[in-house]
From TrEMBL:
Entry similarity comment: Belongs to the LOR family.
Protein name per the record: Uncharacterized protein
Organism: Hibiscus sabdariffa
Pfam families cross-referenced by the UniProt entry: LOR
Annotated InterPro entries: LOR (IPR007612), LOR_sf (IPR038595), Tubby-like_C (IPR025659)
Gene3D superfamilies according to UniProt: LURP1-related
Amino acid sequence: MKAGLGVNGEYIYQQEKHLTVLKTSLFFANDGFIVYDCKGHLLFRVDSYGRDKGQLVLMDAHGRCLLTVRRKRPSLHQRWEGFAGERSEGQKPIFSVKRSSIIGRCGMVVEVLNNPGEEYQIEGSFGQRNCRIMNAGKESMAEIRRKVDASRNVVLGRDVFSLSLRPGFDGAFAMGLVLVIDQINGDDYVQDYKAEVFPTTDD
């Protein structure tokens, strides 16, 4: 059984994989991401400077476009769509992501458009770096967690986090979902981060 949408076979691993994701801007959502594998090699990068704010491109270490995510407008549920490679006019999306509800903080639903039976749920708090991508059987396929510096046993800031992949789950697809989650929850993230770094005090 296929464990997840295959965006690029190069990033489907036979063993569980732990990636390190660095968010390159703390106060303006989605300015960029850099992703490293467990050996410290650059795997993916996203640089949204000068790009349409409603569209992001996931690239490999050499700048090759792997996946484009684009906000669909209008959409009450903040629906986003994913396209293989660099999106061209008239190209059909390969997956879509939307909020489960238009009210308050909630989970998200991921539909794989060329396979109606393949669906995923995203639950948890991205702002707290604690969420999971689960398949229709409620099995965890990928997890986002706070990054821990094992040498010092210190939890790092939320600009650096871990993305763990279950064997067979495409890392490019998972990172594309991270981009969408960050876009949808970006305001929550910025407010939570500012509150953590600059707490208010009563006189």
